[in-house]
Amino acid sequence: MAHRNGRMKVLIAAKERKLRDQMRQIVQSTGRYEVAGTAMDGQEAVQLAVLLKPDFALINAELPIFDGYEAAEMIGLAVPEVRTVLVSDKQPDNLTLQKAMRSGLRSYISSPVDGTELMEAIDNLAALNNRRTTSEYLAATDPSRLPKVIVVTGGKGGIGKSTIAASLAMCLARRHPEKVVLFDLYTQFGDIATMLNVSPTKTLAELVSANSEIDLELLEHYLLPHETGLKVLVSAVNAQPIDAISVAGAEAVIHALKRTYTHIIIDLPPVLHSTTLYVLSHCYHLLLITTLFDMPTLRDGRQLYDMVVGNYTPAENISVIVNRVSKHDKLSISDVERIFGRQVTAQVPNDHRLVSAINQGVPFVQAYTRSPLVSAVNEIADMFTEQRVKGRK
């Protein structure tokens, strides 16, 4: 809290005048804080906290009317911004500490009061207030910057999941410049680098094998900037073992990316092993891609769905996307919904220009902005840009 004299305010509550005076003297001696008021019982402590709105409250456990725990609990409910410190002549045991946590106490010091210990407790709590001005705190408390890990996969290859992943990432990058990462987690036959016409000189597989600890500063050297403002992370250029990226490696990478980026699109191979299952169990949303080509494709998608739903990803966090929809398809959307036992979330139409764009390394969403395909992908992107925040089940 900001005050005219720049000093933070402290409320002192103790039954014995000697203890009140001692704590007053300690607090005032530093010149960094001022005593806003003193209370002789728990009821008065609560009332003064509501009236004065101090930054901190030093509360003796042995208060009349309401004891220190009760007073702290009421202060926490009435003025939650006040940080309370309990002062007690009893050594805290497990039961006492549990009671203190239930009461919302932020610190615990022993009586007789040691001046250094008391001021250290207040200073530590004051440091918490200062975190409100840090960029990390502002990002963490801004719902619009909630990092979303969006996994794109399917029951087999050749269904256009990488196309959907790349197109979605670029649509999101337009809305969130420099805040979107496209992560190709396929270590054997990943197509993202070719699709976007980027040539990585460093790959994630190399980073993971050479480093036991991965942080964002190190990872940034492996993120390829694309002209759209998108960042691209490629797992491998030459075929590597399917598990070249370990669970620990994937976890470290995702955690590092979430500190800065708002949307992390992961192109996940249609192979279930420890790393892909970890990613599926920690994603914000799963886009399960299928097509209307043939019944085996639908059956493969349904098998993947059955494996994942409930075990790794909640049903409400999964969307079934039908890709390459054409009037020439032998199967229908109703066939998909019957096989999956749920509604299709989105349909992405086929566009004959797509193959040519991929072969040239030209982002389709840039070259053909008016294509129905691009419109469909933009509608999928809407799912992750509107303020509809959901929690994991």
Q: Could you write a compact summary of the structure shown?
A:
The protein is 41% helix and 18% strand. With 393 residues, the protein is an alpha/beta fold. The strands form 2 sheets. An 8-stranded mixed beta sheet has the order 8-9-7-10-6-11-12-13, sandwiched between helices. Strands 2-1-3-4-5 form a 5-stranded parallel beta sheet, sandwiched between helices.
What topology does this entry show?
Layout lengths: L7 E6 L3 H13 L3 E7 L2 H11 L3 E5 L7 H11 L4 E6 L5 H9 L4 E4 L4 H16 L4 H6 L7 E7 L6 H15 L4 E5 L7 H5 L7 H7 L5 H4 L3 E3 L5 E4 L12 H12 L4 E5 L6 H8 L3 E7 L3 H14 L9 E8 L7 H8 L5 E4 L3 H8 L3 H4 L4 H11 L11
Parallel strand pairs: 1-2, 1-3, 3-4, 4-5, 6-10, 6-11, 7-9, 7-10, 11-12, 12-13
Antiparallel strand pairs: 8-9
Helix pairs in contact: 2-3, 7-17, 11-12
Give structural notes.
Helix 14 links the parallel strand 12 (318-325) and strand 13. The protein has an eight-stranded mixed β-sheet, sandwiched between helices. A five-stranded parallel β-sheet has the order 2-1-3-4-5, with helices on both faces. The longest helix has 16 residues, at 115-130. With 393 residues, the chain is of the alpha/beta class. It has helices at 17-29, 42-52, 68-78, 94-102, 115-130, 135-140, 161-175, 192-196, 204-210, 216-219, 247-258, 274-281, 295-308, 333-340, 353-360, 364-367, 372-382; strands spanning 8-13, 33-39, 56-60, 83-88, 107-110, 148-154, 180-184, 223-225, 231-234, 263-267, 285-291, 318-325, 346-349.
